[in-house]
Amino acid sequence: MIAAAHELFYQHGVRATGVDRIIAEAGVTKVTFYRHFPTKDDLVLAYLAARHEHWMRWFTDALARYRAEQTLSGRQHQPFAPLLRALEDWFWNPEFRGCAFINAAAELGATLPGALELTAAHKREMVAEIATLLPEAQRGKIAMAAGLAVDGAIIRAQTGADEAAQALEALRTALAALAKTFQG
Fold first, then answer.
1. What would the DSSP string read from start to end of 89-154?
2. What pLDDT, on the 0 to 100 scale, is given for residue 36?
3. Is the pLDDT reported for residue 40 higher than 80?
4. In the structure, what pLDDT confidence band is assigned to residue 47 with cuts at 50, 70 and 90?
5. Predicted structure pTM score
6. CA distance 136 to 52
7. Cα separation, 151 vs 106, whole angstroms
8. What is the Cα–Cα distance from 26 to 4, expressed in whole angstroms?
9. Spatial CA neighbour of 28 closest among 8, 1, 2
10. Would you give the end-to-end CA distance of the chain in angstroms?
11. If pLDDT is split at 50, 70 and 90, which confidence band does 59 have?
């Protein structure tokens, strides 16, 4: 059920996806569904928790892979290069529909406070992972600024391929300026 909800919520939105469609996609009965998720809100929270685990695992792995690639190539260390490569992969994925957490927060607002709490926690963890790319003494505010720039790029990229390319280029410029703040 979570897998069906994940696909439908991410592709079509939380409000646009009804419980009956999820039940049909999951191939379960209504009784089974409601035994696991008494309300749609319960399912939305479970979806966001699962999405967080899935996306953070991918993000952490992608940053590590591109960091190792940069190290092996002997190129000059560019702290945000792994981040840009990971986001480029994600933005060009045909299934990309932006950030599930930004989308859920925009759709649900304060109607589901648990979703906002999960969104805030997800963003804190994303920023913490970005911080690992930076020298320890420079992590705090620069990682937060980079995270905000990433969120803006995600929203822009969501609007189309041309916008995704422009978002990546603008993000590259913003991250280069941030990197200069601690390089000298």
1. HHHTSTT--S-HHHHHHHHHGGGSHHHHHHHHHHHHHHHHHHHTTS-GGGHHHHHHHHHHHHHHHH
2. 97
3. yes
4. very high
5. 0.92
6. 25
7. 13
8. 5
9. 1
10. 51
11. very high
Mean pLDDT of 23-49: 97
Tokens of 18: 């009804």
Q: How far apart are CA 46 and CA 139, in angstroms?
A: 31
**Alpha-carbon gap, residue 171 to 174, rounded angstroms:** 5
102 close to 85: Cβ distance less than 8 angstroms: no
Contacts of 119 (CB under 8 A, 6+ apart): 48, 101, 102, 104, 105
Looking at this protein, which amino acid is placed at residue 77? H
CA distance 9 to 70: 35
Residue 164: what residue type? A
- Segment 161-167 mean pLDDT: 94
Task: Provide the residue type at 138 as one letter.
Answer: Q
